[in-house]
Design a protein that fits this description.
The protein is of the alpha/beta class. The protein is built from eight helices and seven strands. The protein folds into two domains: 2-78; 98-221, 3-Layer(aba) Sandwich (Rossmann fold), CATH 3.40.50. 52% of the residues lie in helices and 17% in strands. α2 runs antiparallel to α3 (54-78).
């Protein structure tokens, strides 16, 4: 009975640790590690409880049931945003809106100024580029260069969304590590990096982009 109680406590502790990780929003690797560890502890505890004390088994199952809302909430917070449309623009997801306030604060000194040129690495359907065009690059002489591999159906969505901004958008269909080497130094007032999220690719994009910034320019890295 005493050993069974210890296993149950260990299982409860594992669930508590997992809950703490979910709340503080640690990286997915650590969440997965804690999830597997907690699951193993709980399975071992359930086996012991079932063997020695059916009442404690019921309590353990009740504890698991109570953790389900927390797990569901965590999954929803990390799932891709739902498809949306914005006026004449069409999007299948929204990874940009959450950053609008930060972009406003970071780029406010460039807002509405003439001759502001931006580079975006990783444009997908163009939601972030449209925000830059409508909120920062508002002068007719300002522009954005969008670099993306544009593979798949989202290229057609990007082209359609960019149509109203003809003359202010330059599209480069290529790998960023190839495209950035063809651009002259000190070309852009700000650069937004949101391409590949692999650590190596992010590092290379940032290193290559640095030379393309004008003195005093702004580099925003999504990851």
């Amino acid at each position: 009975m005493q050993k069974t109680g210890k296993w149950l406590c260990a299982g409860a502790l594992g669930v508590a640790v997992l809950a703490a990780v979910a709340v503080v929003g640690m990286p997915m690797f650590w969440k997965s590690l804690f999830l597997v560890s907690a699951a193993l502890i709980l399975l071992a505890g359930i086996a012991r409880v079932a063997e020695n004390n059916p009442r404690l088994l019921i309590a353990t199952l009740a504890l698991l049931a109570l953790t389900r809302p927390l797990q569901s909430f965590n999954v929803r917070s990390e799932a891709p945003p739902a498809p949306q449309s914005s006026g004449a623009h069409q999007f299948t997801s929204d990874w940009a809106t959450m950053h609008y306030d930060l972009w406003n604060k970071t780029l406010k000194e460039l807002k509405d100024k003439p001759g502001i040129h931006a580079l975006e690495i990783g444009s997908y359907e163009g939601r972030s580029a449209i925000w830059f065009l409508e909120n920062i690059l508002t002068d007719p002489s300002s522009s954005v260069t969008c670099v993306d591999i544009f593979n798949g159906s989202f290229e057609a969505v990007f082209d359609k969304n960019m149509a109203p901004f003809a003359g202010k958008v330059k599209k480069i269909k290529a790998r960023s590590q190839d495209a950035l080497k063809t651009i002259g130094a000190e070309t852009y007032d700000f650069i937004y990096i949101d391409g590949s999220h692999r650590a190596k690719d992010v590092f290379i994009d940032a290193a290559l982009s640095w030379e393309l910034l004008k003195p005093g320019g702004i580099l925003i890295n999504q990851r």
